[in-house]
């Protein structure tokens, strides 16, 4: 596994992640009736927060809490101390009930690297962590300027990242019981993100997805994406609709649509690597990890078809186009979803990563984005969609693998078995966060990368529909 990544979800500078956490944490404590710095309880569930913070002498602008409550634009805000959502309360009860998990959720705080700024608030224990998770259940990601946009777009990963690259964190985040509870948390969050309440971040003010900075970050938005600029929310009825926004046809046009020896990009993404001579099973949990087909494809009957074959993997950033489109002409043979719903024993993981010695950034600070450094590792353990396609020759049978990472626990497949595909036809979408995908080819083919504007394909940002590979049958 390389020490750095060609694409990432969190900034290399840990102080930016820490600033995000430090800004959210005091609000989270207050929402749950605890003092923002001492963590001492000052109010009980259901109490009016305005009265309670005045009584306790806490200086906090209550308007900063608005985004965490389901309050419409025209509604007079009333802020009360809230209890943990039952789903989060069950998570906390599980931690406290299961000895091994309780130990892991305490040890990870001891093993995690200390924040760079000692004056900033940091998550002190699993109680802080559960309250942060609860606070975010009714909070849609907002837009941040520059590198801060990265952590704002994957808030749960930003909250948890300091603990992912620790032995105790690995033990916790690979535990089936923990991942079942993460799954329930994310299903509840996704319910909020698909509701009209989540449009409270789709506006043109500071932190809004329609602010000038946000629109420019997304390629001059109305020139590239289908939207209604006359509507206050550009026609999007929820944060999720914004996240899976559709490109205008001209910006997803397929290069050489009738050339079956050309494979096109299935996603707007940054190419991570090409990997040759795939093995049926391999030790995917070690450094310099190989890909393990049997794990990646969840013991599918087609596994042996791809042994000795080739794989290309590419990573999507939070601002990328999150729909998948067919890279080939052909017919859908089979689709499978490996998710918290379909595979519960064990469920996929969300924040497990291949432990490493975190590389240091130019300022000598540890890089917290270990999941991005574990691209190959996560293909075997995360939520994923498998779409097997019988492509026109010379490609033959190939597989698209969409991998949802972190808070992305929804991979939506929209094609069916027997469906005839043309290059560029929609296959499905990722929802709510960071993701990666692979194209897998059978052995007996020569798969050659196509340079992108004079640069090697590996490490290049490619738009959906562009030509990325040539395929020829070996003699």
Structural class comes to alpha+beta
Order of strands in the sheet with most strands: 9-5-6-7-11-3-2-13
Tally of DSSP β-strands: 14
Q: What's the gyration radius in Å?
A: 23 Å
Q: What's the quaternary structure here?
A: single chain
SSE string: HHHHHHHHHHHHEEHEEEHEEEEEEEEE
- Beta-strand percent range: 15-25%
| Arithmetic mean pLDDT | 89
Shape category: globular
- What is the helix fraction of residues, given as a range? 25-40%
Distance between the termini: 32 Å
Low-confidence runs of at least 5 consecutive residues: 1-5
* Main sheet properties: 8 strands, antiparallel
How many helix segments? Answer: 14
Account of the 3D structure:
With 475 residues, this protein is α+β, with helices and mostly antiparallel strands. It has 14 helices and 14 strands. The strands form 3 sheets. Strands 9-5-6-7-11-3-2-13 form an 8-stranded antiparallel beta sheet. A hairpin with a 5-residue loop joins strand 6 and strand 7.
Please give a quick description of this structure:
By secondary structure, this protein is an alpha+beta fold.
């Amino acid at each position: 596994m390389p020490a750095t990544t060609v694409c990432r979800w969190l900034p290399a500078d840990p102080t930016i992640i820490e600033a995000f956490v430090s800004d959210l944490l005091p609000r989270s404590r207050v929402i749950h009736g605890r003092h923002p710095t001492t963590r001492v309880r000052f109010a009980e569930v259901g109490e009016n927060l305005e009265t309670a913070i005045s009584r306790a002498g806490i200086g906090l602008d209550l308007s900063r809490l608005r985004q965490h409550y389901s309050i419409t634009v025209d509604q007079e805000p009333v802020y009360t101390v809230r209890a943990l959502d039952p789903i989060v309360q069950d998570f906390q009860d599980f931690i406290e009930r299961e000895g091994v998990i309780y130990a892991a959720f305490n040890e990870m705080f001891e093993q995690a690297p200390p924040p760079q700024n000692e004056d900033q608030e940091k998550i002190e224990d699993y109680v802080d962590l559960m309250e942060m998770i609860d606070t975010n259940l009714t909070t849609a990601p907002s837009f941040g300027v520059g590198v801060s946009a990265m952590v704002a777009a994957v808030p749960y990963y930003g909250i948890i990242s300091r603990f992912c690259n620790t032995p105790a964190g690995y033990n916790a985040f690979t535990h089936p019981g923990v991942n079942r509870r993460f799954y329930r948390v994310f299903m509840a969050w996704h319910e909020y993100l698909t509701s009209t309440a989540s449009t409270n971040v789709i506006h043109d003010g500071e932190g809004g997805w329609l602010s000038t900075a946000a629109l420019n970050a997304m390629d001059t938005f109305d020139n590239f994406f289908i939207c209604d600029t006359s509507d206050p929310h550009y026609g999007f009825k929820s944060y999720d609709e914004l996240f899976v926004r559709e490109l205008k046809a001209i910006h997803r046009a397929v290069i050489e649509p009738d050339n079956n020896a050309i494979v096109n990009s299935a996603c707007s993404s940054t190419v991570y690597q090409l990997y040759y001579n795939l093995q049926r099973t391999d030790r995917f949990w070690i450094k310099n990890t190989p890909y393990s087909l049997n794990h990646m494809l969840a013991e599918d009957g087609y596994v042996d078809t791809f042994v000795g074959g080739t794989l290309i993997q590419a990573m999507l950033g939070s601002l990328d186009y999150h729909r998948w489109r067919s890279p080939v002409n052909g017919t859908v043979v089979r689709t499978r979803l490996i998710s918290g719903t379909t595979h519960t024993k064990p469920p996929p993981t969300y924040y497990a990563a291949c432990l490493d010695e975190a590389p240091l950034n130019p300022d000598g600070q540890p890089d917290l984005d270990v999941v991005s450094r574990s691209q190959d590792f996560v293909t075997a353990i995360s939520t994923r969609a498998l779409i097997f396609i019988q492509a026109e020759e010379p490609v033959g049978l190939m597989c698209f693998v969409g991998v949802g990472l972190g808070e992305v626990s929804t991979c939506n497949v929209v094609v069916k078995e027997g469906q005839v595909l043309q290059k560029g036809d929609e296959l499905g979408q990722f929802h709510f966060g960071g993701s990666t995908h692979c194209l897998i080819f059978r052995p007996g083919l020569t798969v050659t990368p196509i340079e992108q504007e004079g640069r090697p394909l590996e490490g290049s940002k490619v738009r959906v529909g562009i030509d990325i590979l040539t395929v020829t049958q070996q003699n």
